[in-house]
Amino acid sequence: MVADVADRVALLCCGKLIEEVPKHDVLMTPKEPYTQLLVDAMPLLETTRTPDVTRNDPPVVEVKSVHKVYSSGKKQVHALNDASFVLRSGETLGVVGESGSGKSTLAKTLIRLEEPTEGAVVIKETDFLGLTGDDLVKARKNIQMIFQDPYGSLNPSQSVEFMVTRGLQLQGISARDARDRAIDLLEQVGLGEKAMRRKPRNFSGGQRQRIGIARALSMEPDVVIADESVSALDLSVQKQVLRLMNDLQSKYKMAIIFITHDLRVAAQISDYITEMEKGIMVEFGPADQVFNAPKHDYTKRLLEAAPGKDWHPPRLTTEEARAIAASIERA
């Protein structure tokens, strides 16, 4: 956004003005280590994954003609219209659209925080929407959610250990095994056993989102819904969380439904993209196809409006980024 509106850019770090230069210089030839790290964290409007469209293995999740209609007296609002898609293990669908386009309604109906008006959601050949009672309780472990707000989605009165182990124990896993599983997951998300006894107030926004990821993965789900799960994070933390989600998906092979208003973020993590407008999936396809050869006018308008779309700053290697981050932390 700064690139699109500014002539000069001032960079602040630890209360000090460290750089003030023309925008081209700060984006294309950043000199200060902190600036280099910030510029490297900028998500670009470039896809990073290409799905194997020839796969014919059974889908992990199949969404069939899901509708959601809200009624108030004689007035009806069609918040979701005929949502349909298929995802296989290890694939990510990026769901993109403006506020009010139906993205969050899709998430809530898929996980049954709200009941859809009609349609089917099949997870590992089980009709998830048709389950009730104990069968529904048992099946909930198969589809988990990472919420948008890393501050509001964690109970401030509960310890991290309670939040990550509670679901496991409700599924019949012993307290000891649940604790071991929680420690292992917290290690994987970069927090470790020392986080177990602490409460959310002791963590930053990025760390809280890592706890949310560990909580979701504790159930070993087949499907994870990430609803604007990085939108509240700073760019550098956002990049770390996206990389973490990619790494964990490679390990656990879950399907991810990644909901975002930011096309650039979607490009970093998605195999497939769907654009939503007024509750309708107006376009669906492999990410590189949607970004490079969009078919629907709405998609074209969103791509044209994406901030910073014409800037392609140099990228750091992972080793360079880690070295710079370490030097800043020491300073």
Sheet-strand content, in percent, reads: 15-25%
List the uncertain runs.
none
CATH topology value of the largest domain = Rossmann fold
Gap between N and C termini: 29 Å
Shape: globular
SSE sequence, one letter per element: HEEHHEEEHEEHEHHHEHEHEEHHH
Q: Provide the gyration radius in Å.
A: 21 Å
Mean pLDDT: 90
Name of the top-level CATH class of the largest domain: Alpha Beta
Structural class: alpha/beta
Instruction: Indicate the multimeric state.
Output: single chain
Number of domains: 2
CATH superfamily caption of the largest domain: P-loop containing nucleotide triphosphate hydrolases
Number of helices: 13
Adjacency order of strands in the biggest sheet: 8-9-10-5-11-12
Largest sheet: 6 strands, mixed
CATH architectural label of the largest domain: 3-Layer(aba) Sandwich
Q: What is the number of strand segments? A: 12
Q: Percent helix among the residues? A: 25-40%
Account of the 3D structure:
- The chain has helices at 2-5, 23-28, 33-41, 103-111, 133-139, 160-170, 175-188, 205-217, 235-252, 263-269, 287-292, 297-305, 318-330; strands at residues 8-13, 16-22, 61-72, 75-87, 92-96, 118-123, 126-127, 143-146, 223-227, 255-260, 272-277, 280-286.
- By secondary structure, the protein is α/β, with parallel strands linked by helices.
- Strands 8-9-10-5-11-12 form a 6-stranded mixed beta sheet, with helices on both faces.
- The protein starts with a helix and ends with a helix.
What can be said about this structure in brief?
With 331 residues, this protein is α/β, with parallel strands linked by helices. It is 38% helix and 24% strand.
